[in-house]
Fold Peroxisomal membrane protein PMP22.
Amino acid sequence: MSDIIKEAWRKYLLQLQINPLRTKAITAGTLAGCSDLIAQKISGVKKLQLRRFLLLVLYGFAYSGPFTHFLHKIMDKIFKGKTGKETVAKKVLLEQLISSPWNNILFMVYYGLVVDGRSWSLVRSKVRRDYPTVQLTAWKFWPIVGWVNYQYMPLQFRVLFHNFFGACWAIFMNLKARSVAIKKA
């Protein structure tokens, strides 16, 4: 079994070198889909919602993977040649002030409009009501992930690391969205 895993990892690393953007997009889509399946199971869904699963895979593939790919490339250019804890702290702060708020709002809007099929007015009011709590929670979770990512991960693995924890975050976001939908039902 370990030979199969080693070979799969070797092929993944090769694809990461040959087609980094495509590989990261596929990885993000896969992890987004897995996070949705886990969230559906945790929330007690009796029959898995395939449409929801596919829409979240699409989100990971079309947005999350490419966004984090370019985010980490840009961060590497902004802080080119700079290392140390102060640089890591600046990267984390920049990411949390710019990327985190944008990603959370976008996810909430996408989830409400596309995944749940709610009207813009309902989505807007939900974002206004829930966004502050979501963002404050994000600022408790993501700086730790960002610190570890920038301090210890090589550039080629930062998106994978980020998307793995993004999948964990998506489970939280899915369950939060699901609990609100259940309360209203």
